[in-house]
Amino acid sequence: MTTSEITITQARERGAVSVTEAAHLLGIGRTSAYEAARLGTLPTVRVGARVLVPMAGLLRMLDGSSEAGPPP
Predict the structure, then answer these.
(1) What is the span of the domain harbouring residue 45?
(2) Which residues does residue 53 pair with via DSSP β-bridges, in sequence order?
(3) Are strands 16-18 and 50-54 parallel, antiparallel or unpaired?
(4) Which of 16, 46, 50, 65 is positioned for an S-S bond with 60, CB 3.0–4.6 A?
(5) Does a structural domain hold residue 72?
(6) From CA 72, how far away is CA 25, in angstroms rounded?
(7) Residue 60: strand, helix, or coil
(8) Residue 57 within a domain
(9) How many domains does the chain have?
C-alpha cells in the first residue's frame, strides 16, 4: 500500500484527506480528482498551500448524497 492508498476505515478516523487519497477512495485518477476539486464537485478546504478534502463531504459523495457539492 502506498502513502496515497488509504482505507475508508482509516479515512473515517481523520478530519480530512489529501486530494490524492480522496481519488483513491473514489476510484478515480489523481488528475480527475484535482479537476473535480477545481470545478467544485469535490469539496475542498485550503490549509496554507495544501488542498484537503473534508471527510464529511467525501462520505456524502460515497453515500450518494446529492448534497456533496461545494459548501455555500
Answers:
(1) 8-63
(2) 17
(3) antiparallel
(4) 65
(5) no
(6) 24
(7) helix
(8) yes
(9) 1
